[in-house]
Amino acid sequence: MYKLEQQQKRIEYIDIAKGLAIFCVLVGHIVDSDTLMKTILYAFHMPVFFILSGMVAHVQPQYTLTNCKSIVKKRATTLMIPYVLWGCIYAAFSFHNLLLIAWGTRETLIRASSLSSLWFLPVMFVAYIILEGVFLLCNQKYYWWKIVLAGVACFLIGSFLPHWCKYGDPWGSDIAFVAASLMILGYEFRPLFDGLQKTHIKIICLVALSGMIMLGIGVRFNSTSVGYVLMANAIYGNPLLFVVGAIGGSLVVIALSTLFSRLRIKKKAIVFIGQNTLGIFLVHKPIVEAGRMIASKLKMNYNTPMLFMVISLVGILVSCIVVYALSFFAPVLVGKRQR
What we know:
Elements: H1 12-30, H2 36-42, H3 47-55, H4 65-90, H5 95-103, H6 106-111, H7 120-137, H8 144-160, H9 173-195, H10 201-221, H11 239-262, H12 268-275, H13 277-297, H14 305-329
Helix pairs in contact: 1-2, 1-3, 1-11, 1-12, 1-13, 1-14, 3-9, 4-7, 7-9, 8-9, 10-11, 13-14
């Protein structure tokens, strides 16, 4: 098992990977549902965030009631408080909508006319709690196979738990088990990903190529009821092919971030984006929707690579400005503590 207690400082290539991943999220929210680009991006664009989150997870030196409360409080501050606030901001106020938002799923957020992509925050919160539970159970002896078995168990539980189609399971608990398995995967493979930093560039390219092949297999042979993987609704298609596509796409993102981190150029912009992905995730949707609307009125096809790239870059820029301002004036809205 990889001990992360001593590695709390930010890792550049992981921040870059998060920056690339959030860019994929924006593109995925721009292109139409019947496009190949949507199918490709949705195969991995949310799983990669869970894998990257697992890569920066760490085992507590000792689990006590006090630090368990501290862990829950920290995750609630960074995830659940922004969820509730933004859920209410995006929805018209009513007690009925509050109940729907409190249920915490994509299905209920849509019924509340709130931001449907907020489903990610409760799922991440529950997944973190599950992950800490796994660490607690395996904390006495650091046997890596215990963690691996726990990850497999989480995936099986999440895959076979019934999903309530009308409202979803509260706080996306079934999805959270799948998310936790991806976080465990990231946690266990972090040493290998760190090792890429010191390997020859040909090895990194080989990893990227392998990831592309896996992603291609997942996209080509997996099929779902909506035409693409929709993790928000627990729609995975074939579970094995879902995992192959998710890991493949994540490998591509991590390999590209490793290559980018080696370039002798200033990386402050992409690192800033990677360090503020939560805030960007929370505010970007109306911005890219405006971009889609403008393109449509100008009779331009936003599904073309040139245009969705432009809309995505503008969306990232505007979102960064908004997040930067919120970080000073209302940090709680972007999961940060008051300065």
